[in-house]
Design a protein that fits this description.
Blueprint: H1 2-14, H2 16-56, E1 59-62, H3 85-94, E2 98-112, E3 120-127, H4 129-135, E4 140-145, E5 155-158, H5 159-169, E6 172-173, H6 187-190, E7 198-199, E8 201-206, E9 215-226, E10 236-240, H7 241-248, H8 253-257, H9 262-268, H10 272-277, H11 288-291, H12 297-304, E11 321-326, H13 332-345, E12 351-354, H14 355-358, H15 361-398, H16 400-408, H17 413-449, H18 456-462, H19 473-499, H20 503-509
Parallel strand pairs: 3-10, 5-9, 6-7
Antiparallel strand pairs: 1-11, 1-12, 2-3, 2-8, 2-11, 4-9, 5-10, 8-9
Helix pairs in contact: 1-17, 2-15, 2-17, 2-19, 15-19, 16-20, 17-19
Length: 510
């Protein structure tokens, strides 16, 4: 073994030029594989952090009547309400693989502008603001105004949606009771400050195909932006869950609290003949003692007064999306299948979708780009294998005299093959390690450079606001395995060529 290593080292030094060429190819392969893996890993980490942890969760649960998996992008389609939410919630809470969950309403809303020619469309999330911030790591960052708290009603508008309102609606959105902040004006609004029309209430109506939606004046509580990927989610605005339900005509918490007495239930269950009999001549007027009864106006006000918003519990109302975070995201596919099986077995109106399918074109494009990078790295593998293999084969043929003489003095084929194997792996260790170290340094410099995404497409490619390739121990181990794999495949054919050289080949060569 020691003799074989010494001979391999001597051969590498003796054939410095060829050794350097082979080593350089290995160096470049290791460098590009390291950088490529860092880019893929950084993108995956960015998407996991910004899409999963800060926005959607690993899994999205929708109604079985929601046919499309894509719920966020594409044509604005009304989202179906999940019926029997409590049963679905109880099943989720019992699942040990689930870390957190968050129910909410989601749909497209129409913003009416009396002073404009056309309505404006936005994506609306109906949420409990504090619960949302807790679930998604305070992803909402307020720019103006305040976040509604303690059951307060209102809407918070994305700063880029506000720019769009002014561009297409001609009005500048302000938090209720707040002055115009000059530094936050868009370029177009800044050029027209003398005639700036401001609004602190928006007239909203939910785009509900089933009917029953209402147009309501909703107070603007604040202007916000997302901490990351704000360009991607520029059309998303948040409304308190009760107002969302009202605008879409869904069951609200107040509706759910109504308790009917026996007479009211009898009226609801009455048939047509019973209803007609109520309007007969005999029943048109009540007795005089009822007409003469006195009513206290204060008692009437107490009976008709709406419930205090601070006491509202949102669960009894309607939801159409439940975002779920898992304890181990590596098991996402298996947990999606398990949840869907359980929903079906228990006859629940629920269906689980992985986040990349729920996010539509965004998740699809992210997967395509990730596959493209992986494909590029794989292409590098094959290019490196072919080049190294050809170079080693040529080196073996150029060393026919040397190898033939070694065979003549008693060297076996296994010794010749081992010599080539050691030579190649020594080069792979020296130049491959150098390539990985330089690649690691290069990806670190790219990360420190903080290249910012200029548009929403670049935000999806980067996996966030900045280009941040990332290496962790698992990725480094993957690079080592890939390098060994490339080197191992590259040496197979050259070893076969070298083993076939005979002493007669050396003599004929001379």
């Amino acid at each position: 073994m020691s003799i074989l290593i010494k001979i391999s080292q001597r051969n590498l030094l003796r054939h410095r030029g060829k050794s350097f060429v082979i080593g350089l190819i290995i160096f470049l392969g290791a460098f590009f594989m390291t950088v490529g893996n860092a880019i893929v890993n950084g993108m995956n980490k960015g998407l996991e952090e910004n899409m999963v942890q800060r926005f959607l969760g690993n899994i999205v649960i929708v109604s079985t009547n929601q046919i499309d998996d894509n719920i966020l992008t594409g044509m604005p389609k009304p989202k179906k309400v999940i019926t029997g939410y409590f049963k679905v919630r109880d099943l989720i809470e019992k699942d040990d693989s689930i870390d957190q969950y968050f129910p909410m309403g989601f749909g497209y809303s129409i913003v009416f502008n009396p002073e404009g020619d056309h309505p404006l469309y936005v994506m609306s999330f109906g949420i409990d603001f504090q619960a949302y911030q807790k679930m998604f790591h305070s992803n909402i960052q307020m720019i103006e105004g305040t976040l509604p708290t303690n059951g307060q009603k209102g809407i918070i508008v994305n700063n880029l949606s506000r720019d769009n309102f002014y561009e297409n609606g001609g009005f500048w959105t302000l938090p209720h009771g707040q002055p115009v902040v000059i530094s936050n004006l868009s370029a177009k609004a800044l050029s027209n400050t003398n005639k700036l029309i401001t609004k602190s209430e928006l007239i909203l109506q939910g785009a509900n195909a089933d009917g029953g939606s209402l147009d309501l004046a909703v107070k603007v509580s604040g202007i916000f932006k997302f901490q990351t990927m704000n360009d991607v989610w520029s059309v998303i605005n948040f409304i308190d869950i009760e107002t969302f339900r009202e605008t879409f005509g869904y069951t609200t918490e107040s509706d759910a609290k109504v308790v009917l007495n026996s007479e009211q239930k009898s009226l609801l269950n009455a048939n047509e003949d019973d209803i007609n009999s109520m309007f007969s001549d005999e029943s048109m007027f009540e007795s005089a003692d009822i007409v003469s009864k006195k009513y206290n106006i204060n008692d009437i006000k107490k009976q008709t007064k709406k419930s205090d918003t601070n006491t509202i519990k949102t669960d009894p109302g309607s939801y159409n999306i439940i975002c779920v975070k898992l304890k181990n995201e590596a098991n996402t596919a298996a947990i999606v299948k398990k949840l869907n099986d359980e929903f079906k077995t228990n006859g629940m109106d629920a269906r689980a979708i992985p986040w990349d399918k729920a996010s539509g074109q965004i998740g699809m494009f992210a997967n395509i780009f990730r596959m493209g990078i992986n494909g590029f790295v794989t292409f590098l593998f094959f290019v490196a294998i072919i080049i190294i293999m050809n170079t080693l084969s040529m080196a073996a043929l150029e060393r026919i005299s040397e190898i033939g003489m070694m065979r003549a003095v008693g060297a076996r084929k296994s010794f010749i093959g081992g010599m080539f194997l050691y030579e190649t792996f020594i080069l792979a260790f020296v130049f491959g390690t150098a390539g990985m170290l330089i690649g690691t340094l290069f990806q670190r410099l790219l990360r420190l450079a903080q290249f910012k995404a200029d548009n929403n497409m670049m935000e999806i490619i980067f996996g966030g606001d900045y280009f941040q390739p990332f290496l962790d121990p698992g990725t480094v181990l993957l690079c080592i395995i890939q390098l060994l794999f490339v080197t191992g495949l590259s040496i197979i054919y050259p070893i076969i060529v070298a083993r076939k050289i005979t002493p007669l080949d050396a003599i004929s060569r001379n």
